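Bumping with the actual sequence this time:
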Amino acid sequence: MWSLYSDGLRGFALHFDGEELARSIKELNDSKFAFNPVNYDIRTATPHLSIDKSEIIDSSSLFKALNTKHEIFSNEVEYRVLSNSFGLKKYSPESLKHVFIGEKMPADQVELLKMIVNSKYKDTRILKVTTIKNSFHIELKELD
């Protein structure tokens, strides 16, 4: 996943407690939410035109399309959070458990990220992700 999402260990990843995140999002925001595990499949899910004249696209087929990814990504065990409104959403600081920082992230960005996490997310652990030489494995090291 690091090669896809963290720009070759130059970025970071967030690990949330899923139950606490869902609870706090519902509690701290006025919007309606749907929390769904991603469906991993070899076929794409395509939205269909609706027979019902009150909507253009069949909502169930659209919902399925929004929650489907190719099975090659099944190791991600991803959830999608959908909302009926736009914009940023509030969540409890306790729901953020870990921040994983790639070993190639520029030092100034690491320091900025550490400052943000330490000031707003007191119980969140910050871990540096490094590759193990001559191996496909990674190692996690606690950062101060």
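The tokens above came from a reply further down the thread. The mean pLDDT is 88.
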